[in-house]
Design brief:
It comes from Parapedobacter deserti. Belongs to the peptidase M24B family. Its EC number is 3.4.11.-. It is an enzyme of class 3 (hydrolase). By secondary structure, this protein is of the alpha+beta class. It folds into 3 domains: 144 residues, Creatine Amidinohydrolase, Chain A, domain 1 (3-Layer(aba) Sandwich); 142 residues, Creatinase/prolidase N-terminal domain (Creatine Amidinohydrolase, Chain A, domain 1, 3-Layer(aba) Sandwich), CATH 3.40.350; 287 residues, Alpha-Beta Complex (Creatine Amidinohydrolase), CATH 3.90.230.10. It contains 18 helices and 28 strands. The strands form 8 sheets. A 6-stranded mixed β-sheet has the order 4-3-2-1-5-6, sandwiched between helices. A 6-stranded mixed β-sheet has the order 12-11-10-8-13-14. It has a 4-stranded antiparallel β-sheet with strand order 21-28-27-24. Helix 4 packs parallel to helix 5, helix 13 crosses helix 14 and helix 15 packs antiparallel against helix 16. It starts with a helix and ends with a helix.
Length: 592
């Protein structure tokens, strides 16, 4: 079926079930950002492939609500689908529910599949629609009957990491979790989010592209730890290791039955942001629900010394691969045809030569000229641009290694750069340096670092629509909570041991985009009469293109930081390079 035909069929089922509006979120039963093919419902229904969005369908309107990162992409992908782009004013806000509240009559029926909706999503819909006298059904799956060739759930093998890699055993992590459950007076704790599951059980897999996770749920009590998983994915040796750690293995599909039998009157800790509404609703029939962030989400955000040591080594490996890639690009472009797609594949090849490389941490964003202005651009055969010896190239990429996860963005000049491009580039670099050199009191939140980073751009009446930074997993998801550096007033303090990106940008639609991104580690700075202060240690090791810099726009502190950074890049990477690579890197990291 075409997307128009799918929309017509969906409306037919809605009429049959007397549903006035149907909502399709971008999610799965684990409330994942990146989804297994089985749960890519929005892409199947509308053609939109972005990782954030919500479809809302009535008999006379079908819309995709998404944020500024995807406006251009959505306009292109929705063409001819029957869906219209609705631009979110506030990222992640449930503005689709506001629209439904304004446009549906009292008594209208609104439905969605509670297995694909977080507790927060469902409550947001209820809060907007119930006061208007509308009826809500959270147990309606209208897509499965229309999707005969729907991909099956993944069956790839999973594996356990050794304590020498993770820095803590599963038994130790379970004990720490139970202590936190006790403090919260929780008799049980349901974990649905795949990265929390992976961290707790030191398990990794490949059920989701670019994210080394495995589908599963966990139910933890004071004396039991049940992992709901397809047991065929594990070797007998790994099953034995989990059993020795006090873990009971159960079938993936049995989680609903087990929750339905949870002892009445007992308390169950559930994360409303990371748990689907179906499981929450099922558990609430017998258990008293405690709603709070998964303790493991906070635990894994603060890296232990072993993880930090591994991450530092991983940054060296990644830096070597990136240096060889950019050297190849500079030397090859004048003589060969290079496109955005072939460029991304070449970068993957360079990373794959590094020990412990598993795969990419996300699909490489290789945006040449105007494509660089699309923050989440991914080249397709139809959009694949051939590079020319002029203009700006933005490359946002990352690697998954057994010893860590990387995420880096660089913009390089391919020739004939304009004064406007040079100015914008320098201001973005200045912003990145301001964020990287921030010193702040303990208890500071991410939105404060976000503002510090943006100031050089704000001073020049420039801004960007995405956040300044996100947490990074340890050989886990490239986007990790609970902390984030953006304008939202998220009440999560920055703690030492957290690894976060700092990635300001500037985008001229139809012309070019600029983003410069490093990963930073939060470290203790010093104590004063006014309390304890925290600073950042830059972990990423890759040169920053100085050919694009207008030095007159930088203060002495920015120049000193850049020169010191380049000195550390050369010192860390050059011992692993041959003479030609060292000479090339020396030129790229020369002091300005």
């Amino acid at each position: 079926m075409t997307h128009i035909e799918k929309l017509a069929a969906l409306r037919g089922l809605m009429a049959e079930h007397r549903i006035d509006a149907y909502i399709i979120p971008s999610s799965d039963p684990h409330i994942s950002e990146y989804l297994p093919d089985h749960y890519k419902c929005i892409a199947w229904a509308s053609g939109f492939t972005g990782s954030a969005g919500t479809l809302a369908v009535t008999q006379d309107f079908a819309g995709l609500w998404t944020d500024s990162r995807y406006f251009v992409q959505a306009e292109e992908q929705l063409a001819g689908s029957g869906y219209r782009l609705v631009k979110l004013k506030v990222q992640t806000a449930p503005e689709y529910a506001d629209w439904l509240a304004e446009n549906l009559p009292e008594g209208a029926s609104v439905a969605f599949d509670g297995k694909l909706a977080s507790v927060m999503f469902a409550k947001g819909v209820q809060d907007k629609l119930l006061p208007g006298g509308m009826r809500i059904n959270s147990d309606v799956d209208l897509l499965s009957p229309l999707w005969p060739d729907r991909p099956a759930l993944p069956t790839a093998t999973a594996y356990l990491l050794d304590e020498t890699t993770t820095g803590a055993s599963t038994a130790d992590k379970l004990q720490r979790l139970r202590e936190e459950m006790k403090r919260n007076r929780a008799n049980g704790h349901l974990i649905s989010s795949l990265d929390d599951l992976a961290w707790l059980f030191n398990i990794r897999g490949s059920d989701v592209a670019c994210n080394p996770v495995v589908l599963g749920f966990a139910l933890i009590t004071a004396d039991t730890a049940t992992l709901f998983i397809n047991r065929k994915k594990l070797t007998d040796a790994d099953k034995a290791r989990l059993t020795a750690a006090g873990v009971v293995l159960a079938d993936y599909k049995n989680v609903e039955e087990t929750l339905g039998n949870f002892p009445k009157g007992k308390t169950l800790l559930i994360d409303p942001k990371r748990t689907c509404f179906t499981l929450y609703h099922l558990a609430s029939r017998s258990a008293s629900i405690i709603e709070r962030t998964n303790p493991t989400t906070q635990f894994k955000a603060v890296k232990n010394p072993v993880e930090i040591r591994h991450m530092r080594e991983t940054m060296v490996k990644d830096g070597v691969a990136l240096t060889r890639f950019f050297k190849w690009l500079e030397e090859t472009l004048p003589n060969e045809n290079i496109t955005e797609i072939s460029l991304a594949e070449k970068l993957r090849q360079f990373r794959s030569t590094q020990e412990g490389f598993v795969g990419e941490s996300f699909d490489t964003i290789a945006g040449y000229r105007a494509h660089g202005a699309l923050p989440h651009y991914k080249a397709t055969p139809n959009s694949d641009s051939q590079l020319q010896p002029e203009g700006l190239l933005l490359v946002d990429s990352g690697g998954q290694y057994l010893t860590g996860t990387t995420d880096i963005t660089r913009v390089v000049s391919l020739g004939n750069i304009t004064d406007a491009e040079r100015t914008d580039y320098t201001l973005v670099l200045k912003a990145m340096i301001e964020g990287s050199t921030a010193v702040f009191p303990k208890g500071t939140r991410g939105y404060q670092v976000d503002a510090i980073t943006r100031k050089p751009l704000w001073d020049n009446l420039r801004n960007y629509g995405h956040g300044t930074g996100h947490g990074i997993g340890f050989f886990l998801n490239v986007h990790e909570g609970p902390h984030t550096f953006n304008g939202a007033a998220i009440d999560v303090p920055i703690e030492t041991g957290m690894i976060t990106s700092i990635e300001p940008g500037l985008y001229r639609e139809g012309k070019y985009g600029i983003r410069i991104e490093n990963l930073v580690l939060s470290i203790d700075h010093r104590d004063s009469l006014f309390g304890t202060f925290i600073a950042f240690e830059t972990m990423t090791l890759c040169y920053i293109d100085t050919a694009l810099i207008d030095k007159s726009l930088l203060d002495a502190k920015h120049i000193d930081w850049l020169n010191d950074y380049h000195s550390s890049v050369f010192e860390a990477l050059s011992p692993r390079m041959d003479d030609g690579e060292r000479e090339w890197l020396a030129r790229k990291t020369a002091a300005i």
